[in-house]
Write a structure and sequence with these properties.
There is one protein chain. The protein has 13 helices and 12 strands. By secondary structure, the protein is α/β, with parallel strands linked by helices. The chain folds into 2 domains: about 160 residues, Aspartate Aminotransferase, domain 1 (Alpha-Beta Complex); about 220 residues, Type I PLP-dependent aspartate aminotransferase-like (Major domain) (Aspartate Aminotransferase, domain 2, 3-Layer(aba) Sandwich), CATH 3.40.640. The strands form 3 sheets. The chain has a 7-stranded mixed sheet, sandwiched between helices. The chain has a 3-stranded antiparallel sheet with strand order 10-11-12. Strands 6-7 form a two-stranded antiparallel sheet. Strand 2, helix 4 and strand 3 form a beta-alpha-beta unit. The longest helix has about 30 residues. It is globular and about 70 Å long. The chain binds pyridoxal-5'-phosphate. Pyridoxal-5'-phosphate (PLP) binds next to helix 3 and helix 4.
């Protein structure tokens, strides 16, 4: 093991930048016959691959309807509209901005609620505290692919007559009590962008068991046109093209293997980081499986010896790419902070925003990569005092 971290002049753990994520894709040879067929048929959109992908996704998720759309963001916009939500919607601030931007596009008012510091997910208690007389829905997120407390949130939503929607952008590959997340609420909305386990280049899936909602999404992704050119409501163009559906179909066949290998990488991270004080991976409840769309750890600066930001800079010197998900949290974004009351306190959200960092993970990291990353974290921790002094002096040339 090298003794000195790169930020103090040691050799970097990786000679070239270790990218944060590398998409799992089918081979060109596997795609080629169908690509040829799509191009020669001229059916680039609304063709047979869309239907095939939707049926396969619905079967995988165990839901009645899996409606494919152009992105998770458009799927969320259409789901919020399709459920006729009005007024206030309880939503975590510790999430990606699209959970909230889609609410605002749908004319709704986000009411921010706190998350659990260990799972990073919205808790039923925090959701209930944030309910107002105008609340029409609770939107929760399976952060980093870690299933939220679906049953607990469902009980709160039912008690208050609110709809329950999950932003399941990270959800493909996640299991809640042994079953894929997807059928346990009014809607689960998935992302199929290249950082996810199931990739369609860009795309989303709205999973629901409700016939009316599925129909509203289908019409909504077609401008609100049910075929009569007399708009039923203001829709979008949120269609998924055939080539994306083809990628999605291949991705579904690869998904279980991808999820299994991500979980192996996460297990290795947990074992290797275990003895480093002040680093805590996210808690996944017994009986659930995270997709590990991301492997996030929380840094306790007092015990680790460095802040999250200092660790990130030291890892950058090792050529290890990381992400500070989600800093700043959404209730502090320029576009959304006016929705947060002056006395709003979200202590766990602020703590996670300041202390959480996601390390590279993927099913194709390569043999020994997690070990090299963890060795680098060990070296940085062992030299924490010197690293802190060096970074304070601003003498490192690391650009983050
Ligand atoms: C929690 C969450 N919601 C929504 C989105 C938006 O997904 P898309 O890019 O498919 O619109 C993302 C993107 O990664 C996300 O992380």
């Amino acid at each position: 093991m090298r003794e000195s971290p790169a930020v103090l002049g040691g050799q970097p753990a990786f000679a070239e930048l270790l990218r944060f994520v590398k998409p799992d894709l089918p081979s060109h040879a596997a795609l080629e016959p169908a690509l040829r067929e799509i191009v020669s048929s001229g059916m680039l959109t609304k063709g047979p691959y869309l239907g095939r992908f939707e049926r396969a996704a619905a079967e995988h998720l165990g839901v009645k309807h899996a409606v494919a759309v152009s992105s998770c963001t458009s799927g969320l916009m259409l789901a919020y509209r399709g459920l006729d939500l009005r007024g206030d919607v309880v939503v975590p601030s510790f999430t990606f901005m699209a959970t909230v931007s889609a609410l605002v596009w749908a004319g709704l008012r986000p009411v921010f609620a706190d998350v659990d510091p260990l799972s990073t997910n919205l808790t039923p208690e925090a959701a209930e505290r944030a309910i107002t007389p105008d609340t029409s829905a609770i939107v929760a997120v399976h952060n980093f692919g870690n299933p939220a407390d679906i049953e607990g949130l469902k009980a709160v939503a039912e008690k208050h007559g609110a709809a329950l929607v999950f932003d399941a952008a990270h959800g493909f590959g996640a299991l809640y009590r042994g079953s894929p997340v997807g059928g346990q609420a009014s809607a689960h909305v998935f992302s199929l962008s290249p950082t996810k386990l199931l990739i369609a280049a860009e795309g989303g899936i709205v999973a629901t068991n409700e016939d009316r909602l599925a129909e509203r999404i289908r019409v909504g992704r077609e401008y609100g046109n049910d075929g009569h050119y007399d708009s039923l409501f203001a829709g979008l163009n949120a269609r998924m093209p055939e080539m994306n559906a083809l990628l999605g179909l291949h991705g579904l066949a690869m998904l279980e293997d991808v999820a299994r290998r991500r979980n192996q990488a996460a297990d290795e991270y947990r074992q290797r980081l275990h003895e480093i004080p002040g680093l805590a991976p996210i808690h996944v409840a017994a009986g659930n499986r995270s997709s590990y769309k991301d492997f996030a750890v929380t840094v306790d600066p007092d015990r680790f010896g460095l802040s999250r930001d200092e660790l990130v800079r030291a890892l950058a010197a090792e050529n290890i790419d990381t992400r500070n998900y989600y800093d700043p949290p959404v209730h502090r974004h320029k576009a959304y902070r006016h929705f947060a009351a002056a006395d709003l306190r979200l202590p766990n959200t602020d703590l996670l925003a300041a202390c959480s960092v996601s390390l590279p993970i993927g099913s194709n990291l390569g043999e020994g990569t997690v070990a090299k990353i963890c060795d680098a974290v060990h070296r940085i921790h062992r030299s924490a005092r010197d690293v802190k002094a060096k970074l304070k002096g601003g003498r490192d040339s690391v650009v983050v």
